Amino acid sequence: MGMTLKERLYRFRSFWIFPLLAVVLVDLTSRTEPQHRLSELLWLVPAGVFLWTLLEYGLHRFIFHIQIPLRSSQLREFLNASHLGHHASPRDPGKLLVHPLFGFVISAALYGLIYLLSGSVFSAAGVMAGVWAGFLYYEAVHYRVHFSLAGTGLVAWQRRAHFYHHFTNNKVCFGVTSPIWDYVFRTTRS
């Protein structure tokens, strides 16, 4: 039996929450800083997507598979319990998608950092729109990789690398949607 619409809206809530948040944030910040043009989104959003690839790699490698020593086992558990649960039950849909609250916390910190670097709430909003687009692409790919049987194409290639990470060596193949940083940091499969 399939999911009801309410169940789908809840399970895939990031797919409507983050686009809505992006539209509202870009609109509000464009009114706050009217000197900026919406055409600037043509470079801000791709910059955010590129930033997402680095975030995906860094969070997956250094936070979800914590490799830095933490004195607090509770902090370590908080940071990677969900991801380790996903590794233990990779076909459990309840352990596959990122909880939106975690996404909000990371987004707020990232927005603040981008604002500090750029000095512009609009530029930070544009970059965040790209980060969220990359994040949602990640969520879609990650879900499809675990629940689709596509044998060819990009999804099959992403599945092979991701399943290598899951079932053979969890110290490589941290990029689920892009292998860029795995190549840069030499964590591709051998």
Descriptive overview:
It is a single chain. By secondary structure, the chain is an all-alpha fold. The protein contains 8 helices and no strands. α3 (41-64) crosses α6. The longest helix has 27 residues, at 121-147. The radius of gyration is 18 Å and the shape is globular.
- Tell me the span between the first and last alpha carbons: 41 Å
Order of helices and strands: HHHHHHHH
Low-pLDDT sequence parts: none
Main beta sheet:
none
Helix content: 55-70%
Q: Strand content of the residues, in percent? A: under 5%
Structural Rg? 18 Å
Oligomer: single chain
Apparent shape? globular
Q: What's the mean pLDDT score?
A: 89
Q: Topology, pairings included?
A:
Layout: H1 5-11, H2 14-32, H3 41-64, H4 73-88, H5 100-118, H6 121-147, H7 153-167, H8 180-184
Feature tags:
globular; mainly alpha; about 190 residues; about 70% helix; 8 helices
Describe the structure concisely for a colleague:
The protein has 190 residues and is mainly alpha-helical.
